[in-house]
Structure formats: structure tokens, C-alpha cells
Amino acid sequence: MQEMLNPADGWNGARFNGAKMILLCGGSLLVMRRDDIPTINWPGHWDLPGGKREGAESPADCALRETWEETGLRLTPDRILHAEPRELPHRPGRMGWYLVAAITEAEAAAARLGGEGSELRLMPVAEFTAHSLAVPHFREIVRELVARFSETPSPAPPAAAHRP
């Protein structure tokens, strides 16, 4: 399958490993606590929804699918406020994408864990960026990207925000 430009994220088809979604709700983020399993990366740490790319997904498609699988929130590409690639700090030479979207308080309240993680909650941005159990390399990325969107207006709630 040929990789195509995705207008939601500006992706030009360059190779990447996965995508993370920064879900803003007021001054907080929707974060999930990773399972406390010693064989996974960052066991028991606070993480952003997202994960590994499947097939020829674009960054937006990857992040939106992972957000749905991990939180039950089915967002549409038009909800993405920003998207950018960065080298993965823990895997030099590999690229990941970071996307920002705003969610409503009702969507945050409706979010439910999928098949991974032990807890899902809203966490103030300042708490996440200082938390000793936040995935370390996401602290600065979140700090930088959230600073760009601190005055983001609240989104209008979509018709179908969560899985049945």
C-alpha cells in the first residue's frame, strides 16, 4: 500500500515507528498508568495514549486508533491541533510523532481503559511534567507542546465520543 500525505498531520510519507497523543482538557492531560509488568518499557509509569504504527498508517491514523483502543475515545482528524515528528530519545535514529488534541470534560469523564494500563485519569500538566513516574522523555515534550496550546478553546463535543 502506498503511503499518502495526510492533511491532518502534514505527514509526507517518511518512515516512523509510532505516535503519541497529548489530550488536553483545560489545564490537564488525559494520561494512563502503564501496567506494572517488568518486561515492558516504563512499567507502572504515567504515559500518553499512543503506540506502534500498524501497516501504512499515517501518524494521525496511528494516534487516533491508539487513542480509541486505550481510552475508548473516537476522535476525528479535524480534532488534531498540532502534529510533529521527533527522534525517539530512547531509540536514536527512529522517529515518532506527537499529536495534540483538545477534549471536553464530558469526553474525559467517558474515557475508559482498553486492554492495557491500570488507570486512566486527568492529571494537571504541571503534575505530569514534574512527576517522577511520568515516562521521562515525555515530560519535556509535553511541556513544550502544551505551552503552544495553553489558550486553546474547548472543542465542540462530537456525536460519538466513546465506544458503546
Overall shape: it is globular
Total beta-strand segments: 7
Helix content: 10-25%
Give the CATH superfamily: Nucleoside Triphosphate Pyrophosphohydrolase
Any idea what the radius of gyration is?
15 Å
Order of helices and strands: EEEEHEEHEHH
The figure for the number of domains is 1
Task: Note the quaternary state here.
Answer: single chain
Please give the CATH class. Answer: Alpha Beta
Query: Structural class of the secondary structure composition?
Result: alpha+beta
Largest sheet, described in full?
7 strands, mixed
Round the mean pLDDT to the nearest integer and report it.
86
Which ranges are low-confidence, i.e. pLDDT below 50, for 5 or more consecutive residues? Answer: 1-5, 152-157, 159-164
At CATH level 3, the topology is Nucleoside Triphosphate Pyrophosphohydrolase
